[in-house]
Write a structure and sequence with these properties.
The protein is extended. The strands form two sheets. The protein has a six-stranded mixed β-sheet with strand order 3-2-1-4-5-6, with helices on both faces. Strands 7, 8, 9, 10, 11 and 12 form a six-stranded antiparallel β-sheet that branches. It has three domains: 54 residues, no CATH class; 127 residues, no CATH class; 113 residues, no CATH class. A hairpin with a 4-residue loop joins β4 and β5. By secondary structure, it is an alpha+beta fold. The chain contains ten helices and twelve strands.
């Protein structure tokens, strides 16, 4: 949006005399008012056209500013209290890990939230929405972190994997190694940080990743749902709190997709079979990021098994369920 400066020069004595005469007004203010009066005298169609152009340009400028903003969000659990924060800046995982290291090494205890400059309190719902946005590729959301200081765990959302979790001390140590490279090059530090964390992911309830969702067998349709059998590719006992004896007890884990709603069902269903013949039914509630991650895996597996997307295969299954019998019913 272009503007033009209009400069007027007047003898200082005239300026002071006018200022005394105007009393509650300034000379500049009176001149601006006169300029507005001149604009009001323009033909209505001219004023309307220019006003609309200026409004459109202002809205475009506001949108460009908003689009350029980057956000990171944190869920912090400390001393039994969980809070959610947003910062208007791009905080990568190494920077978040550095906050963890500073908190662990502080001489006097201060709340972790004080490590987050420019923080703003947000609700749990906004945190979840932004976490899902990160998985879905929203470029404005550059970092999503769950820092559980009580449980000594650090979790982050990666667009390709969903949640990944590490022990707090491993994240702190990796941060320390990244700055011992003797280099100020950010890419080199990031590479060192990633190298030191390789293979140290842990299974954490509420933070299942794409690595934890591996399907086997056929997809079955039942009661308006598509059921997927999950291989035990994660520590089910750690996540569900079960105690299975290796070689004796076994588990069957199922994830379901609601075809009518077009979304992953809230629960993983777990059938626990004991060696002595007893059976138990358990459930694991999926959070927003886990559901978004699982949906992507379901769609890929459906393509592999049926040659169709999850949406198309669901539509086919529902159409077949609604189709009338081919012949007379006796």
């Amino acid at each position: 949006m272009s503007s033009r400066e209009i400069a007027l020069w007047v003898d200082e004595r005239w300026y002071q005399a006018l200022s005394r005469q105007l009393k509650d007004e300034t000379v500049e203010g009176r001149l601006n008012s006169y300029l507005d009066e001149l604009i009001d005298q323009l033909p209505e169609h001219v004023r309307g056209k220019i006003s609309n152009e200026i409004w459109v340009e202002q809205q475009k400028q506001k949108q460009e500013i908003e689009d350029s903003k980057k956000y990171s969000v944190f869920r912090v659990t400390e001393d039994g209290v969980t809070k959610h924060f947003q910062v208007e800046q791009a905080v990568d995982m190494l920077e978040a890990a550095s906050c963890v290291r500073r908190w662990l090494r502080q001489a006097e205890h201060h709340p972790f939230q004080e490590m987050l400059s420019g923080r703003e309190n947000i609700s749990a719902e906004i945190f979840d929405r932004m976490a899902v946005g990160c998985v879905e590729g929203d470029r404005k959301i550059t970092g999503v972190y769950d820092v559980n200081l009580d449980a000594q765990k650090f979790s982050a959302v990666r667009p390709d994997l969903g949640w990944i979790t590490y022990r707090l001390k491993d994240v702190s140590t990796a941060s320390w190694h990244s700055y011992r490279t003797g280099s100020y090059d950010k890419e080199r530090r990031q590479a060192r940080f990633t190298e030191k964390l390789a293979g140290k992911e842990i299974t954490s309830a509420g933070h299942l990743s794409a690595k934890n969702f591996a399907f086997a067998d056929e997809i079955t349709a039942d009661g308006g749902r598509l059921n997927f059998y999950l291989e035990n590719s994660f520590d089910v006992d750690r996540v569900l709190g079960t105690r299975t004896a290796k070689g004796d007890d076994w588990l069957n884990v199922y994830a379901s997709y609601d075809m009518a709603a077009g979304q992953v069902c809230d629960m993983l269903e777990v059938d626990l079979h004991r060696a002595d013949g007893r059976e138990e039914s358990l459930e694991y509630r999926l959070n927003a990021v886990e559901k978004a991650t699982l949906l992507r895996k379901m769609d890929a597996y459906c393509q592999q098994q049926t040659g169709q997307s999850l949406t198309d295969y669901s539509a086919q299954c529902m159409a077949e369920d609604m189709a009338p019998p081919a012949g007379p019913v006796m």
